[in-house]
Design goal:
Pfam families: DDE_Tnp_1 (PF01609). With 222 residues, the protein is an alpha+beta fold. The protein has helices at residues 2-13, 67-78, 94-102, 116-119, 172-175, 189-201, 205-213, 215-221; strands spanning 27-31, 34-38, 40-45, 52-58, 84-86, 106-108, 129-131, 136-138, 144-153, 156-162, 183-186. It folds into 3 domains: 2-37, no CATH class; 40-112 and 192-221, no CATH class; 120-186, no CATH class. The relative contact order is 0.10.
Length: 222
Amino acid sequence: MKALKNIEVQLNQTPNKQISLTDPDARSMKTRGTGIVGYNVQTAVDTGYHLIVEHEVINEDVDRSQLSNMAKKARSAMGADDLIVIADRGYFKSEEILACHEAAITAIAPKTVTSIATADGRFGKADFILNAEKNEYRCPAGEALIWRFSTIEKGLKLHCYWSSACQSCAFKEQCTPSPQRRVKRWEHEGILDAMQTRLDLAPDSMRIRRQTVEHPFGTLKA
């Protein structure tokens, strides 16, 4: 019990509340159907030769903060001026897409669907059309959601829009249980929209990703 109490003190001092007594750097990782104490290996693979051009071993169990870091390292390793990086939805993070854009790297990663409204069968954000000229959204009922204010959430600056016509709208049950349907837009969301357009115009991108980044692992296992 005394030894466990000492470990508890150490545990409370660690950022992610984890201590591995066997390997100090290892962390608990989520895997399909189970978990493992180990590492998360990041690889960047070129589409031409299916060679790993850059890799990194991390002890974070999610990939969301790795896209721009790996993309920049891959570009440097390949000595390339231009780079298109394709990743799965596990790498989608607004700040990472922005970082790639600012580094002149073209990123393609599907958005993660986290909308409660969509999950409940109501109108999703995609059903609200932005009018950039007027800085307002048009809802499925044809009403205008005008800009109301800006706010900071999780470090991101968001613009908030809503309409005053929601209470009497015939589509309200299909839209929101709240008094108004509010739409929030990140200040750099135009970059995400442009990326989605790239993905729509290149529907085979995810197939290319699977054939590329998974290829070396298949070779190693074989």
